[in-house]
Input
Amino acid sequence: MWVYLSDSFLSIVAHDFDPTCLLVRARVAGDIERVFPGVKAKRTPGADYLYRAKIPHQRVYKAISRAVLGIDYRNFKGSVADELRHNAYLGCWTAMSRLQQLKDEDAVETMTALGRIPPLSESTPHGRLRSPAPRTRAGAPSGKRAKRARLPARPRPSQSRSPRAR
Output
């Protein structure tokens, strides 16, 4: 389970060996400790999540319940004070907004007609897209200015070689 909080992002999964505990993981130092005071997260270099802690189910349940009961904002993105975290969350929000558009048949039809997503392939099963639309940097301008904000294309192998390697 991914949990996005105003000041923490957590990934919570079953613990490999202890069925009474969950493995709480985080990418940023302090995220676990903010949600679970008194817990000391281990730094795990080389793992997909840099920080992790083994925490009993009931403690996780109580902490997440407190977070839900403490919601006092009307817009989650506006509740995130840290700019780097806000921008990372915005990238996730953007990806999920795109998924919403792709999963809603009316939205797909409209967006395709407007040229915002590639047409559905007639040869693929279930009308899936042939390829994703071009990616832009998180928070990049949309519309006409978006063309300038697109990420650069990867160089072709012949372009990436040095003159000596040819």
Observations:
- Residues 90 and 138 are 7 Å apart (CA to CA).
